Amino acid sequence: MIAKGYAASEVGGQMIAWTFDRRKPRPEDVEIDILYCGVCHSDLHQARNDWQNTVYPVVPGQEIIGRVLAVGSSVRKFRPGDIVAVGPIVDACLECAHCAAGEEQYCLNRPTLTYNGRDRVSGDVTYGGYSTGIVVSEEFVMRLPQGLAINRAAPLLCAGIAGWSPLRRWEIGAGSRVGIVGLGGVGHIAVKLAVALGAQVTVITSSPTKIEDALKLGATNVVLSSDERAMAEASGHLDYILDTIPVPHDLSVYLDLLSLEGSLVVVGSLASHGSIRPESLLRGRKRVSASLVGGIAETMELLQFCAERQILPDTETIAMQDINMAFARMEHRDIKYRFVIDMATLKAEMA
Ligand SMILES: [Zn+2]
Ligand SMILES: [Zn+2]
Fold first, then answer.
1. How far is the CA of 40 from the centre of ligand 2 (A)?
2. What is the pLDDT of residue 100?
3. Closest to 311 in 3D by CA, of 189, 213, 216
């Protein structure tokens, strides 16, 4: 399968059109015509080699919505024409204890990432969703439930599940007091999800311009992190905090907001947050954790929940050719709250 995509070919380089070969489909493979792909912060980091592990050329994209073109001889779950989704992981060993528990994202033998990963069979580099098509093993393809808008659902596959997984682990429900720190791609969906689960949601943000948005999204309270008095007043009032800030920061100011046995989980960030002083944990036996997206079953649960409740990310649709502009705007936090690429614009370029 010949695919066209947009790739970064050098450190800090621009995204440019690139034609490449997808792997020859295996019996368990699903060939997907990509319709939409979300633009995640990881895409930007990887394109610029911020994590020092990028293999160039890199084709980013790990929030994929598409239509099945063809299926291999052993595929049972999908047929041509099905609308499907693919997230940040396209393979795992499926034999280890973590895979057996449905937590393929934590595969003890390392999951295969959708891009900048290595195919488990051929060893070739994987290429992501900024392209016309992709070939994925059926175990890692999800059916998109009826009723979920295909042009907006893509960000659920990484940003959405990043928040959903910890909310479910904590069994968030009616009466849970949840704090969401940061109102970006992950944060804004997490607010919608926590509210839909019945939680009382407090948004903690550094930007006054987001107060109104947070309330519109369903938050009960908004606290400006720069407002020392408001932060002191909120102290000890939250049971759970989802920290979605993508850059290094001091966790202790947020730990102060937790009540007895409260938990703070860091999502959507690989940044170092420095050292945590035991003092900020011992006044209330508090916990700090971190979480990485979710497994396939849990992601399907999220898609189903969003279809039933009509929960969708707030998106701005762009053309593939606008990706460099989109990256620049993301750096300036000029997006509410997620870009989605309409892949018809890439196919038009080929015609
Ligand atoms: Zn495994
Ligand atoms: Zn992502």
1. 5
2. 97
3. 189
